[in-house]
Amino acid sequence: MSRRTRSRQEWEVCASTLARKTTNLIRRIVENLQVEPNPNKELIALSIGDPTTFGNLNPPEQVLQAVRDSIELNTSRGYAPSKGHYEARVAVAKYSAHQGNVHPDDVILSSGCSHAIEMVITALADCGQNVLIPRPGFSIYQTLAEGMGIVIKHYNLLPDEQWKVDLDDLESQIDDDTVAIVVINPSNPCGSVYDKDHLNEILDIASRNRVPIIADEIYEHFIFSGNKFTAISSLSQDVPVLTCGGLTKRFLVPGWRMGWVIIHDRNNILGKEIRQGLSNLSMKILGPNTLIQRALPAILEYTPQSFFDDVLLFIEDQAKLAFEELRHAPGLRPIMPQGAMYMMIEIKLSNFPEFSNEFEFIECMVSEQSVFCLPGTCFDYPNFMRIVLTIPEDKMREACQRIVLFCKEHVVFSEKRKDIEED
Amino acid sequence: MSRRTRSRQEWEVCASTLARKTTNLIRRIVENLQVEPNPNKELIALSIGDPTTFGNLNPPEQVLQAVRDSIELNTSRGYAPSKGHYEARVAVAKYSAHQGNVHPDDVILSSGCSHAIEMVITALADCGQNVLIPRPGFSIYQTLAEGMGIVIKHYNLLPDEQWKVDLDDLESQIDDDTVAIVVINPSNPCGSVYDKDHLNEILDIASRNRVPIIADEIYEHFIFSGNKFTAISSLSQDVPVLTCGGLTKRFLVPGWRMGWVIIHDRNNILGKEIRQGLSNLSMKILGPNTLIQRALPAILEYTPQSFFDDVLLFIEDQAKLAFEELRHAPGLRPIMPQGAMYMMIEIKLSNFPEFSNEFEFIECMVSEQSVFCLPGTCFDYPNFMRIVLTIPEDKMREACQRIVLFCKEHVVFSEKRKDIEED
Ligand SMILES: Cc1ncc(COP(=O)(O)O)c(C=O)c1O
Ligand SMILES: Cc1ncc(COP(=O)(O)O)c(C=O)c1O
């Protein structure tokens, strides 16, 4: 008794543009690699950005106790306001005082830092508008933006200047459709940490072009000795800064999905509109898990400094170890990081004529040495690879030695190559 | 040293269309109401859909224990695959066997049922396409769709036939841009539960018009005596059904944000495209909290039937109590629900000539009797109000008595009104 039937007579269900265009660059690349390890050597994955994978890094007892306590509260089960429980936002504001004057109303809790980034990008950008991200840079930005028709443009970092921003390039990328500049500091994948002067240079460009900044500071406080972390928001005079952070890395609980956006807007440029917009967007999934929200004040207050110091010391030691080892790998150039938990390594492909790109180098290294590094192309940066610094020391040493061996076996120096070419 | 400056010389930061158009109908309406309770009477909020608010309904000990155990696992802190840990998806598949033949690969975990709904809607619908939802119906669908430019169209439910679907109206709403029919069973706000015959009638329409179904079954198993719950997916021959569910209501943990999508697609109509699309979308926020994911197998397996029975008995008793009391409220027509945790009550405004709409009725009832019910307009259904059935019995009784009193004080019967009119 159909009153009308659709013109479509066959079943045909198509995915939306959003669903089709939402992709994960890292996964897409890794899935297409031939990574069959050498069966005689245990695989060492230097690719995994989850610091808890190897079992050597665990959250401190105080963090676990805070959640144990939270379970017993009958206020940890009901819906929270979609921006988060007030007490939790107070705690984040206090914890983030180094970023500038943070009020609980400036804080919106999110389901991990990824969700924080999603909210700020989609609050600012309409389809066709663009966001500038660093190259090399973490690929979640593409995952979150491109399906929405938001354009991701890149500005270059300078590997020879400890991955500082190429300021001219940054400014040249800004156009009338640019709604935000993303600054990832400390950086994934570079491990760079910017000093005040450099952050001020970036702010100057944002200010004279009237572009807000999205500060991805999920690695805040992961700073190796001799460097200092400065939140870009604390320096800003006029530029609105939306800072994205969370528990993920510093507290070693990525699976708990607890992140936040902090709105820094001294001159009230974002006004009601962006605040309201972020608040609207938070209503979509009604905030992060309330067990963790209720634990947040204790987590942020009672985690001892010694825990952070120990983790950081370990990572810095790993960085030094890897750097020392890999400096002796012919044909590679490791770039010593200043923070975070990664190191970028240049593969001088001219010294490895049998490989036409970094993928082939990496694939061959897995098949011979069972060591897997992430191709630089995952960060839009070919001819490099990224290693993580969070794996146990013995594995790190072993992995580096295998990398050195692999390079020695495959490197071809110019004279040698000349010989080959003359053959 | 600007290489180029934008044409924009003043700071002006606008929110995106998405951010502006993402709104919460309930909140918007409630914020605009004048709800100043009578200072001499304690406010009783019959409006709050969070069953944990009143403290009388708590998750069972087994659920809390499962999370306590999960905290101690060092696998409950790292990133999960974005569709969820395999073991958790196995548990959901097993728990959902009544829905049809569910394989773990058919399960995608989400951050609450809202997030499940967001993923299925945005996987199916492009800007300009439409999704059909019931009227009266829960407003999260507007919140999730309208900002994306996805159109929400309504089909009517029939209050005189226990809120069955007006099948003619449903079919007449389908057009070439319709990508899904949403069936909310049991229903928020109606409390209706559809039998097999009626679900088959809905499936027939979906089948001959080639429209997939989104089954919102967050209230599955909340079924009062004499009724039976059937998952619409279990009846479908050809129509693909995307079922959205979660722990939220049945386990009394809405704040934990644990939901799921289950893909039912016997004839493989959704194919790779929709599965891949959902999987892509799940990468945006990397799945729900892993503490709960790790606890999920124990939660779903060990929660005793007696817990569910007790909660359900309580809610059904409340429904009977409210129905009995409010049947005697002149000018009201409560409609006895068959499940879920709500009751809809018609306000016969012709008997309340001093109020020109249900808002005025509700506002006045708050100011005189300190009882607050949710206006039907929150569900696109004027002249009704919704009450929750989860508040403690003594409050429910008191609230109903006050409602009856309010009606007696304000009702005007036809003869009386005739008198007034003739004055
Ligand atoms: C630079 C950067 N931003 C954001 C994220 C996402 O963090 P989360 O896991 O809290 O979503 C990561 C995770 O690796 C990251 O490296
Ligand atoms: C019909 C319906 N669907 C979905 C939801 C959202 O559930 P969750 O809190 O798990 O996101 C609700 C919440 O009240 C609901 O009533």
* Helix count from the secondary structure assignment of chain A: 15
**H-E string of chain A:** HHEHHEHEHEEHEHEHEEHHHEEHEEEHH
How would a textbook summarize the main sheet of chain A? 8 strands, mixed
End-to-end separation of chain A: 82 Å
What Rg of chain A do the Cα atoms give? 23 Å
Give a verbal description of the structure:
- The structure is a homodimer of 423-residue chains.
- Chain A is globular.
- An eight-stranded mixed β-sheet of chain A has the order 2-9-8-7-6-3-4-5, sandwiched between helices. In chain A, strands 10-11-14-13 form a four-stranded antiparallel β-sheet.
- The first copy, chain A, has helices at residues 17-21, 25-31, 61-72, 86-95, 112-124, 140-145, 167-173, 196-209, 232-235, 271-282, 290-302, 305-326, 358-369, 393-410, 414-422; strands at residues 44-45, 107-110, 130-135, 151-158, 164-165, 178-184, 213-216, 241-246, 259-264, 332-335, 342-347, 371-372, 374-375, 384-388.
- Helix content of chain A is 39%, strand content 15%.
- Chain A is built from 15 helices and 14 strands.
- In chain A, helix 3 packs across helix 11, helix 4 (86-95) packs parallel to helix 11 (290-302) and helix 5 (112-124) packs across helix 10.
- With 423 residues, chain A is an alpha/beta fold.
- Bound molecules: pyridoxal-5'-phosphate (2 copies).
